[in-house]
Structures are given as C-alpha cells and as structure tokens.
Design a protein that fits this description.
The chain has 638 residues and is an alpha+beta fold. It has 21 helices and 21 strands.
Amino acid sequence: MSLTTSTDSRCPALGAALPQVPTAPGVYLFKDAADRVLYVGKAVNLKNRLSSYLSNYDRHSPKTALLLTKLVRVDFLLTRNEREALILERNLIKEHRPRFNVVLRDDKNYLCLRLDVSEPVPRLAQVRRFAADGARYFGPYVSSTALREITRFMQRAFRLRRCRDRGIPRRRRPCLNYQVGLCLAPCAGRVSLEDYRLAVREALMFLQGHGTRLLKDLDSRMHAAAADLRFEAAADLRDRITLIRERALAQQSTAAAHCKDQDVMGIAREGDLAVVLVLLVRGGMVTGSLSYDLAVPAGETEEEVLAAFLEQYYGPERFVPGEILLPFPVDDLEVLAEVLSDQKGTPVHLRSARSGARRQLLELAAENARAALTRVLEAGPRIDPLLDLQQRLKLTEPPRLMHCLDISTLQGDQAVGSLVVFRDGAPDKSGYRKFRLADFPEQNDPAMLAAVVRRYYGHPPAILPDLLVIDGGRGQLAVVGRTLAELGLSGRLPYIGLAKERQTPSGDTFTDRVFLPGRKNPLLWPPSSPALLLLMRLRDEAHRFAIGFHRQRRRLQLKTSALAGIPGLGPQRVKLLLTHFRDLEALRRASLADLEAVPGLPAKVAQTVFAYLRNGMPQPDVQSAPGSDRSAAAAAES
C-alpha cells in the first residue's frame, strides 16, 4: 500500500500514512521523489513504529533526520507475524540496497563440500553455494588450497567417487582414480553398495567432527578382520586409521572446546566504517574467518549494525551452524533464531558468553576484527567505483545498473552474443542473457552487436540501465549508437566502449581504453583507478559468459556431427539421444535395452544406432579438428 497525502508539515508523506496504517506486523519502505527506496524497516506494530518518527522528530540522529527530509512516499507490506516481517525485510534490502540501510555487499561464493546421502551412490563434490536440497554441506572453505587439501585427504581416507554420473554409474572398467587407490569404483562393481554406503557414513562422521568415535570403530573392525584371517582388509584399515589419526593430530592445535559447528561474531568500528568478522568453527575446530567492511550511516550503534548484518548474512544460500556466538545481545534475537532454525531444519542458538571457552572464542573474533579494521584504515580511504565512474564520465547519477555486451565467434561460425548485468558494482546473474546469431556467414562483430542491441532493446526492459558498456572500440561504438538511434533510445541510454590494451610497433603499451560517442581519441585512465577496474570486471564477465556459451554450441556441433551418418537419425533425434545420455561416452556404453527405452525413439532406429555404435563409432579429434573447442576458445580469446 502507498500513501503520499500531506497532513504533517514536518514530514508530509509520513503524516499522510499514519491514519491508514494498521496496528499489525509488517515492513515499511521510505521512498524519494524518483521512487527510489531509501530505507526498509520492519515492525511488530507498523502504526506505532511509524508514529515514533514524528513523536521523536527533534531527537532523531543525523541519519534519520536526513532520511525524513528526502521522504516523499511511504509504502508498507503486511505480514502475518514478526518472523515473516524479518524475512521480507531481508529480501527487500537485498533487492533494493537502500542508501540509509546497513547493506552487506557480498558477491563472494565460498567453496564447500557437498555430500547427498539420498543418492543411490553418493559422491563428494565441490560446490560454491549452499542449497536447501537435503544434501549435507561442509564449509565454507575460505581458501581453495584448504579445500584441495581436505578433498585429497577425503579421497585417500574414504575413497568416495567424484565422477558426475547420475544414479548408479555403470562402467566396464574403473577409472584411473581406482587404479591409484582414490576411489572404491562402485561404477564397475568393485565394491558392494552396502560397503560403499558404509564408507559414506564414515566420511560423514569425520566431516561432522566425530573423528575419535570413527577411529574406535575402525580399530575394532581391524582387529575383527585380523581375527578372521582377512589380513589384507586388516592392513587396509590400519593404513586408514594412521591417515585419519595424523589428520586429527594436525588439527588438534586449533580445536575448540565444543565439538560442534559454530559461527563466532566479532565487530570493530571507527567512524562510519565497521568491520564484522565471522570466525568459522567446524566440527569443534577453527577452520578460518571471513571479514566484511560495512559503511555505517551516522547514528547507528554497533548493536544495530550487527543485527542488520546477521539478517542479511544468513540468507537461504548460506550454511547456518547450530550455534552463533555474539559479542552482545541484539534486537529481535528470538525471532532471528526462529527464522534460522526453520531455514536449517534443526534448532539454531544465538547466544553470548561472559566466561569459559565460548568467551575465549568471542575474544579471538574481536581481536581479529580489530586487526582487520586496522588493515582497512592503513590502506587509506577507498573510492567508491560507481562514484568514480560517475565523475569520470560526467553522468548525472552513479551507474548502479550497468549492462555489457560481447560477441564470441570463430570466423562467423556458431556466433553468439552475451549480455551481463552488474547491480551496485556486483554481478546480477538473474539478468544475464545469451543470444544465438545464426544469420552471419562471415565474422562481423559490429553487425552482430547491432543485432543483439535490436533484439534486446527493441522491446526495452522495464528499467533501462544507467550505463551500457560495449566490448570494443570506435567501430563497434558507432554501430551501436546508430542502432540505439533507430530504436529511439538516443539520449536515454548512455553507452561507452571499452577496448583491451594494445602494444604499438614502437613497443609502447596502452592500458584498456574507454571510448565515448562523438569523441575520436579514447580516454586513458590510470590502471589502478576504481572506475577502470570496475569496467574491466564487467567486460571480463561478459567475455567469460560469451565464451562459455560459444564452447557449449561448439561441443553440441561436434557431438551432432559424430552421429550425423546414422540412417534414420535426424537433428531432433540426435538432440533427444544427447539429452537422454548426456554425452557420447555414455551413449557408447548404452545397451540395446537402454536405447529402446529412450522416449520418442522408434525401436528400429534404436537397433540401428546400437549396431552403428558396436561396429565402431568415429571419435572426433577435439584437439586438432577445425573449429574444435580448443581452437574456438583460442580464437575467441585472441
């Protein structure tokens, strides 16, 4: 609901809202004249909360006083309870990133281990995001080196499969991992499913911090095997016990007092800058820490900063431990605990401590937070890349929403275009788009860019970007400018070109150059300028996205050409087979019954395909074939 009629001279929009605001829980949004969200807040009683802004008008902090002077419109959304209000507030802050809220700008996805015990043959996988899919996640690991180390150990100690086959994989012979003792090879029947599930349970015990219990279990099994004269099995268990015990001893120095998963919060602040440090305790051991710099609006207390951080940090994609230690209590602690408990599926406790082992962890987190704040302050004041870009390009507003276009092709073959989106300087992958460009027999990057611009901006999105970046120089920029003029977007959509660094015949090297419409010579910015670094990140992301799509198209072309000679197998049936069997190797291993079970594939065609595969299916030389993935990647990257 939105209310803007004036009834209070000090804050007209707020005065207008009060008579119609119910005494119910919900979320309110303060907006400015341009309909931008300035602030998002929640309340158990919306009417009382909004009334407090007027009743305490003369005692507001500078931040709140400035907020009310810019307030033009008040929206509010009702919820059934305070818990739903907290979740809605968190989502709205993440979506709008309001100026007057403490906003966590975290675009990092930390590595973690995933083990889905519901699979027939569970595999150990490295992923970059937690998901509510019923699988077990362990981490995050802030260092890829640490993740590789634990993965190597898990392979040696428990030998779980890491291949990507779904269901129960079937192979005639095991892969190299089995040959070097890093996999039990359930795919080739070298281990029974019962014994493999036992190895999965052992791996879970170790990752959950129950190493002592696991060692006792393995030791009893070793002695039982020796008593039964199964000496090879006993020797294998002995080697595993030694390996696991060495790992446990190496981590003993970092062990915490409680064998559980914990996040320990530390906070340090100076002026309008705060650092929140999260100390990661997994399985009773300190495994690392994450630190976050926060710009704090004037008047915010440390308690308010930490409360806002907690609400935004523990999103649905984040692992939630069983216990979160806080240096001091914050508002809405019980509600936040309920939300996180629902999210995790088991109870989550948020508590502080005055003594004991928990207090020692809190002091360690506080000490590390102060050290992180000192490093940030010694590095000097940071320039906001968006403000730097606004000043250098003389834009009216910081370019909070930016698009970038790129083309990837190999001499016109399998040409594709990409559009990536940055919001507030961070990737917004929900807005990414990719385009097939099939109407260009020869390579013509400017014409391809024009085609992408017509296709996407010919029916403009609801909100045009604040800045459009083209991967290219004057030629590409001129073509895009003419295309935008044809679409009636001249003057409504600022656009620039970014060309990669180049070397002159004399040996001089120019950094990445920025081209502006109507200007012959490019702008040469310092290589370390925040604005240029942001544009390079945007351009490189568009390049990565385009190259990935191009390689996907090339791989599909290679697979299709390998099956093109089979009678009765047209493009649609080739696509059907590759979708069902995922790759050529899986198709080669398929039995006749597997082929006949493919929906939509006639039995006669299935028999033809089976005979063709058994008589020897030619394998394309991916490394040397013209237009291969490697050739395509090299040409596109050049």
